[in-house]
Amino acid sequence: MHRRDILRAAAAAAALSLLPSQAQAAWAHALAAPQSTLTPLQRGVITTVADALIPRTDTPGANDVNVLAWIEVIVADYYTPADRALLLTGLDAMDADARALTGSSLNGLSGEPLTRVMNALDGATDRTTPAVRGYGRLKGLVVHAYFTSERVQKDVLKTQIMPGRYDGAADMPTKGAGRDE
């Protein structure tokens, strides 16, 4: 099984926690009115981590569907002040950890240094540090944003959100046309 398949299955289950109307409203808001809750550094941390978690392959990556805009709407409009503070503190702590580990900001980091930082965050034994908690929240947001985006729903998952029209006069399948008798 490929990593993309595992993420797809996990996100499909996670997407059920946010009702489609709420996800659709958040996406509409994200596309219509960009938020400014995050600092440029925090925005860079999010895009760097999002691209590492779900990179572009034969399907769009997380940044191709603009998960950053969706995350900003969620953080600004749906998070409580306490949850917002935890995430923002976590993003800053992730950057500080990256600087301590690699000598560079997490914003724009790539290759082996980025892998080292993400492995350190994933493998941390103390799951209560601000960086590790922020990383966990960010991963959840990225996966959720990705799999609720219209582009991924239509082009990758091939989900038909609103099935075709109602046709009360549709023909019934004929006997032997693939139906069990």
Notes on the structure:
The chain is mainly α. It contains 8 helices and no strands. The protein has helices spanning 3-15, 20-32, 40-53, 67-78, 81-102, 111-122, 130-148, 150-156. Helix 1 (3-15) crosses helix 7, helix 2 (20-32) packs across helix 4 and helix 3 (40-53) crosses helix 5. The radius of gyration is 20 Å and the shape is elongated. The two termini are 36 Å apart. The model is unreliable at 15-19 (pLDDT under 50).
Mean pLDDT level: 83
Overall outline: elongated
Largest sheet: none
Low-confidence stretches: 15-19
Topology record:
Elements: H1 3-15, H2 20-32, H3 40-53, H4 67-78, H5 81-102, H6 111-122, H7 130-148, H8 150-156
Helix pairs in contact: 1-7, 2-4, 3-5, 3-7, 4-7, 5-6, 5-7
Attribute tags:
mainly alpha; elongated; 181 residues
Describe the structure concisely.
The chain is mainly α and 181 residues long. 62% of the residues lie in helices and 0% in strands.
